[in-house]
Amino acid sequence: MSSASFPRRHFFFGSLLAGAVPLSGYGSVPSLKALGYKPYYDKLNVAAIGVGGQGGGILNQAAATENIVALCEVDAKRGAANLARYKVPHYKDFRVMLDKEGKNIDACTIGIPDFMHATVALACMQHGKHVYVEKPLTRTPWEARLLQQAAVKYNVATQMGNQGFSHECNRVAAEIIWSGEIGDVTEAHFVTTPGTHPTGLEAPPAEAKVPDTLDWKLWLGGAAERPFSDAYVPYNWRGFLDFGTGQVGNWATHTAGPVHTALQLGAPTSIECLRQEGKSSITVPHRGVVRLDFPARGKMPAVAVYYHDSARPGDPEAFRVPGMENEVILPPVNNLGEKGRGPRQERSTGAPAQRAARPANAPVMGAGGPGVAVYLPPGGRGSGSQPGVLTGNGSLFIGTKGMLATSSRGEGVWLLPGARWREYQLPPPLLTRSPGHMLDWIRACKGGERSCSDFSITGPYAEWLALAVIAWRVSGKLEWDAANMRFKNNAAANKFVRPEFKKGWELKL
C-alpha cells in the first residue's frame, strides 16, 4: 500500500493505532533499506540545523542514542556550547551542508525560527532525509500543506516537536472522551499564558549593528530584506508576523494538542477574531480570543473551539467556566499516579521560568537568559490561577454530560468538578504508548511505525492553528475552504495564506 493510499484513520493517529512490527523488524526489509531506512540495531547519522536554544535541546536528545555527523548554525554565539561539544563538520548554510555531507546523513533535526521551517525541511526531504521539525510546524497554512505532501512524495519519516503528543495524559484524555464519559463535546477551549516576545508594536524596531557572530543574510533566508535589529534575535523573532506566530506557535501548539487528538479535528469551516488588544501589522497582539468552527466528524457533532491567547488571572475578559466557580480548572501535571498510571513523557528544554510583571513591552536584558530581552504586555504576565477561570496553559472540553481539562502540553488531565475525578475509574487503554517523543521519530526513521506527530497528523493540525494568526490580521468571520486553501469571503485574508519568498528561495515539490 502506498503512503498516499493509507486510510485517513491511520494517517490521523499514526503510530497510536498502527499494527504490529513484523518479527524480523521493518528495518530488515530490503525495500525499506533501499528507501533510506536502517535496521533498529544501526545508529542513524543525524545532522542538526539550528544547535542553540531548543534546537540544541533536540540535538542532544538525538545524540543520546544516535550518531551526530554534522551541525549547521548561522548564530555562532547562540550555538556556541554545542558547536564546541560536537567534533563534527560545522556549516552556516544548510544547503552547503546537504550538498557536501548528504551521503553521510540519514536524518535531520531542525530547530530554527518558524519562518524557515518549511524551507529547510523541504530541502532535507528532497535530499531523502528524515526530518524532526520543532513546533510549530510552519508559519502559514500553505507551508503546512506543502510539508504534508512532501513527506508522502519523498517517503521519509517525520515528526513535529510538540512533545505533549507523547505524554500519557494526552492519550488518557482522548480515551476518556471517546468512552462517552462527558457526552458529546460541542464546545472546547484552549488557553496560553502571555509570552515574553514583542507584542502590539506600532513601528519597526530600531536598527542595530549586526554582531560578528551572526550571518544576518542567512538568518533571513527567504524573508524580505530588512535592517538588523537586536529585537529579533536570538528569541524575539517569535512575536513578529514576518518571522513567527507568537503564542500560537509557542504554546498553543502544545495546549491545543489534546483538543485536536480527542476531537479528531480536521479543517475548520470558519474562523473569527472575537476580540484583541494591541492589534499590529508588525507583531502579534497583546492578547485576544479567536473562535474556530469545525463541522461534524463521523458521530462527533460540530464543535466551536475557542483560543484564549495570553489570558491572565484577574482579567475580567478571561473565560469563566459555567458552574465551576469554586473549582481549580487546570490539573497539575503528571497527576495519573493516583489512578495507577505513571507518566510517560520526554522533557523538553522549554523557556526559562517566567519573571514578575514589568511595564508594557519594556525589554529586560538578560531576564530570559544571557543576552535575551524579555518583552511583557500591558498588565504584565499575571501569576497563579483563579478558581472558576480558565488561565494558564491548558485546555477545556465542555460536553453534554460534563467537563474535562488538561494542562500544559497535555501533561495533566482530570474531570470537573474535582469530586467527580476522585471517584472516577479510567477506561482501559486504547492507544499504544510512546517510548518518548524523540525515540518515536527515531523508530520511524528505522522503518518502524509512523511517529505520533508524523506530518500526516500534525500537518492538518498546523494548518488550522496558523489560521488563528490570520484572524489577528483580518477582521470579521472568515469562511475557510480547506480543499482549495483559500478564504471564500475575504481577498485580504488570502494574502496571508502563503508567504512571499525572495527570488531564489521559492518552494516547490
The radius of gyration over CA amounts to 22 Å
Structural class, by secondary structure, is alpha/beta
**Main beta sheet:** 9 strands, mixed
Taken from the alpha-carbon principal axes, the silhouette is globular
Mean pLDDT: 89
Percentage of residues in helical conformation: 25-40%
> How far is the first residue's CA from the last residue's CA?
22 Å
What proportion of the residues form beta strands (DSSP E)? 15-25%
Keywords:
disordered N terminus, six-stranded parallel β-sheet, nine-stranded mixed β-sheet, alpha/beta, 509 residues
Architecture overview:
- With 509 residues, the chain is α/β, with parallel strands linked by helices.
- The protein is 26% helix and 17% strand.
- It contains 15 helices and 19 strands.
- The chain has helices at 8-13, 30-34, 53-63, 80-85, 94-101, 117-126, 141-154, 168-178, 216-220, 246-255, 257-262, 418-423, 437-445, 455-473, 491-494, and strands spanning 45-49, 67-72, 90-91, 107-110, 130-134, 158-161, 185-191, 270-277, 287-294, 303-309, 319-320, 364-365, 373-374, 389-390, 394-399, 403-407, 412-416, 478-481, 486-487.
- It has a 9-stranded mixed β-sheet.
- Mean pLDDT is 89; it is low at 1-31 and 346-360.
